[in-house]
Design goal:
By secondary structure, the protein is of the alpha/beta class. It folds into 2 domains: about 100 residues, Nucleotidyltransferase, domain 5; about 130 residues, Nucleotidyltransferase, domain 5. The protein has 10 helices and 14 strands. The model has no long low-confidence stretch (mean pLDDT about 90).
Length: about 260
């Protein structure tokens, strides 16, 4: 069996997969602010998985991973947070760390021909790049949300215009996925479209996958997106892309 640990800004999801990729068990808890509290919560929630025969553990990090050890969390001030050694005490198997957006693109682009760019529109805008079922090196430096664009006579970072959180703030709703009106969908498409030409020009993808909360209402605005000579797709599993990416990553690492 394979264990995926997806550490998000608000929740941490632990998923146990069978050898064939079926989810056997899930466990979820709120991600604490402090690293020490988080580690205690994680160890407590992992206890039930120690009884299983785990072949590999993959940890999805919302930030930078260096040499499978030195970690900088994008949404926490947890620089050089040692998570590897505590996990080694719990599981006697290979343990790998990878950026969460990289794992999401690995799963969402799996078996899609050519090059794919995965974009997640949530609190910010992140993403990954993959080709022929492999994460590409340039994916590690892919930060599309920080590029600046002009919209409604103001210049802001793309994620301050088109992320789900920005859309929620603008329309005064709790969830962007609750929006339905045609004119709002046209506006959402315009916001999302701002950064797409630059991505197509620089990375030359065959497919762009639009994830996060905006992936869940993909069908409502996709017809308003510009024709850039690429294919737009919605995520196969908008809520579990990273978890399934953990499983695929573990399987790939086993074969190396």
């Amino acid at each position: 069996m394979y264990l995926g640990i997806d550490i998000g800004g608000t929740k941490t999801l632990i998923t146990l997969f069978s050898r064939r990729g079926r989810i056997v068990r899930r466990r979820k808890f709120r991600t604490p602010q402090g690293s020490k509290t988080f580690l205690r919560e994680l160890e407590t929630n992992l206890e039930i998985f120690r009884k299983r025969k785990v072949r590999a553990v993959v940890v999805a990090i919302p930030g930078v991973v260096q040499k499978n050890y030195s970690i900088k969390f994008g949404n926490r001030n947890w620089e050089n947070f040692d998570l590897l050694n505590p996990l080694k005490k719990l599981f006697d198997c290979p343990i790998w760390f990878e950026n969460d957006a990289n794992l999401a693109v690995l799963y969402e682009s799996y078996r899609i021909p050519g090059r794919s760019v995965f974009l997640t529109f949530s609190t910010g805008i992140g993403g990954g790049i993959a080709e022929n079922n492999r994460i590409l090196p340039e994916s590690n430096k892919f930060e599309p949300g920080h590029k600046k664009y002009q919209y409604r006579d103001k210049i802001n970072e793309w994620e301050d215009i088109a992320a789900a959180s920005a859309i929620e703030n603008f329309y005064h709703v709790d969830k962007a996925t609750d929006l339905r009106k045609k004119e709002i969908m046209e506006d959402i498409a315009k916001r999302i479209a701002l950064g797409l030409p630059d991505i197509v020009k620089k990375y030359k993808p065959d497919t762009i996958i639009l994830g996060g909360p905006m992936g869940r209402i993909f069908r409502l605005y996709v017809d308003y997106l510009p024709d850039l000579g690429i294919k737009y797709r919605r995520p196969k599993r908008p809520n579990e892309s990273v978890a399934y990416g953990c499983y695929l990553y573990a399987k790939q690492k086993e074969k190396e």
